[in-house]
Amino acid sequence: MDSADFLEALPRKRVRHFDLPGDAHFLTFSCFHRLPLLSKDRTRKWLVQAIADARMKHVFDLWAWVIMPEHVHLLIYPREIICKVSEVLADIKRPVAQRAIAYLVSRRSSFLNRLTVRNAKRTYRRFWQAGPGQDHNIYDPDTAHRVVEYIHCNPLRRGLVSRAGLVLQIGMVDWTSRFV
Questions:
Q1: Structural domains of the chain in order of their starting residue, each with its CATH number
Q2: How many Å apart are CA 120 and CA 135, to the nearest integer?
Q3: What is the pLDDT of residues 78-114, one digit of tens each?
């Protein structure tokens, strides 16, 4: 059994989403095999548009975010009592994957081979790593502050920028009042 078959044979990890009213969610999701698929402006623009569309559909505030070359961090606060984080993630990830793969197909890119998964039942392409990524409920201001700092300093820790906030747009929202 080669390594690709071994990975496919492993059980998928299951992340349970706790869609509790009043909680913010610290979300992290990664590109397939942690490839730097978000390193191009074109793809990042598709992601930003998908996040904006999901915000309108699911009515959530975006408290902090960063797009790294191979993963994404979001801190969101649902404004509606009923909000399924799994649906938010699907509405962000699916359109980006579809556009990116369609773009590569239209250009007959050999890079598609790196996104192709073959198993006994079917062959398909992946843009995102399988599974929902990570979802941490945030319910107190101190934790929310630490998460915002972690998100905004992520490019600095990786050496992608010279100072935190250099390439980030930080919304000025009185988000701490949400926990009161």
A1: 15-179 (3.30.70.1290)
A2: 31
A3: 998 888 999 999 999 999 999 999 999 999 999 999 9
